[in-house]
UniProtKB/TrEMBL annotation:
It is found in: Cytoplasm. Belongs to the sugar phosphate cyclases superfamily. Dehydroquinate synthase family. This is 3-dehydroquinate synthase. Its main location: cytoplasm. The gene is aroB. It comes from Parasedimentitalea denitrificans. Keywords: Amino-acid biosynthesis, Aromatic amino acid biosynthesis, Cobalt, Cytoplasm, Lyase, Metal-binding, NAD, Nucleotide-binding, Zinc.
Length: 369
């Protein structure tokens, strides 16, 4: 029960290996990349407590020595203070140009450590070992690395592709149900944006995935990663098609800003709600049928996910204020917002041509629900 997806980027190509038990095999997987049998691992405290010893044993089985740094868990880590701490720690460990840094954790760790690897000695190689569903299907693949600025999320960073990604699906068993479902928001996004057959498969198999069925988990991660790999291979630096991966994100970023990037709304939850809103907007604009947004919402609800704005606890700002927050998104070009809309489930496209009064009316109705 193991699959490999190849990300085809010329001399920056790499494999994403997906399956249960990869931590225990990490040494034999990583050793071909090494010039000396030593790696540095950066993780977070939660992941380290649960899984670092398994990784250490997996590396030791191939006689690879490991030193590790654990950062505090959570989005607040993804800023300058922990970033400079990480870079200086890597320098203290005497990481050389030929060495490999391992990012072992969820999206925060993958993004921060990838960026540290991008700038350390003008670039060292790194391996992603993603431990959250969101990181396995999205952030560990494609080379976007970075940290947040006070002005906004992910505003400081670099494209730096990993040399290998090991997605151990066994590790997903230690996620909370909430974190798992938040990651599932990104999985279902792939079906909605480019593969209606995958969406139908998820309608049938989503509950199995949530219940821990390993074959279903491997299949869902593989199909998601394959879609991302294909898109990244076509458009590594997001000049066009890669923006499709942002389905639901224009709404999501406004909601994340409105909830202070707090526990009130996890990123994957915002993506799911944002996708439902993007389909509603597409239907209002006559681009897709009225049934599509209903079908999207029905699946999210069946999975027990946040689907509507009323599923977010506490007060939300007005529709006008949410539109203003969208205007601060980094995807704004010449003052115009970019939306990912859909002609059908599985057929999304990028456009800047969306009347703001329609966006406003979608949000007003969503807030009134
Ligand atoms: N998470 C969107 C991208 O990697 O492009």
């Amino acid at each position: 029960m193991e699959n490999t997806v190849h990300v085809d980027l010329g001399d920056r190509s790499y494999d994403v290996v997906i399956g249960p038990g990869l931590l225990a095999q990490a040494g034999e997987r990583i050793v071909p990349l090494l010039k000396r049998r030593r790696v540095v691992v950066v993780s977070d405290e939660t992941v380290a407590e649960l899984h670092l010893e398994t990784l250490r044993a997996g590396l030791a089985a191939a006689e690879i020595e490991m030193t590790a740094l654990s950062l505090p868990p959570g989005e607040a880590t993804k800023g300058w203070p922990q970033f400079s701490r990480t870079v200086e720690w890597l320098l203290d460990q005497k990481v050389e140009r030929g060495d490999v840094v391992v990012a072992f954790g969820g999206g925060v760790i993958g993004d921060l450590v990838g960026f540290a690897a991008a700038v350390l000695r003008r670039g060292v190689r790194f391996v992603q070992i993603p431990t959250s569903l969101l990181a396995q299907v999205d952030s560990s693949v494609g080379g976007k690395t970075g940290i947040n600025a006070p002005q906004g999320k992910n505003l400081i960073g670099a494209f730096h592709q990993p040399s290998l990604v090991l997605a151990d699906t066994f590790v997903l068993g230690t996620l909370t149900a909430r974190d798992f479902l938040a990651g599932y928001g990104e999985v279902v996004k792939y079906g909605m944006l480019g593969d209606s057959e995958f969406f139908t498969w998820l309608e049938k198999n989503g509950p199995l995935l949530a219940d821990g069925d390993m074959a279903a988990r491997v299949e869902a991660v593989t199909r998601s990663v394959q879609m991302k790999a294909d898109i990244v291979a076509r458009d590594e630096t997001e000049q066009g098609d890669r923006a499709l991966l942002n389905l639901g994100h224009t709404f999501c970023h406004a909601l994340e800003a409105a909830t202070g990037y707090s526990d009130r709304l996890l990123h994957g939850e915002g993506v799911a709600i944002g996708c439902a809103l993007a389909f509603e907007l597409s239907a209002r604009l006559g681009l897709c049928s009225q049934e599509d947004p209903s079908r999207v919402r029905a699946h999210l609800k069946e999975m027990g996910m946040k689907t509507d704005l009323s599923d977010i606890s506490g007060e939300l700002p007005s529709a006008e204020e949410l539109v203003d927050l969208m205007g601060q998104d980094k995807k704004v070009v010449d003052g115009q917002l970019t939306f990912i809309l859909a002609r059908n489930i599985g057929d999304a496209f990028v456009t800047g041509d969306v009347p703001s009064d329609t966006v406003l009316s979608v949000l007003k109705d969503a807030l009134a629900k």
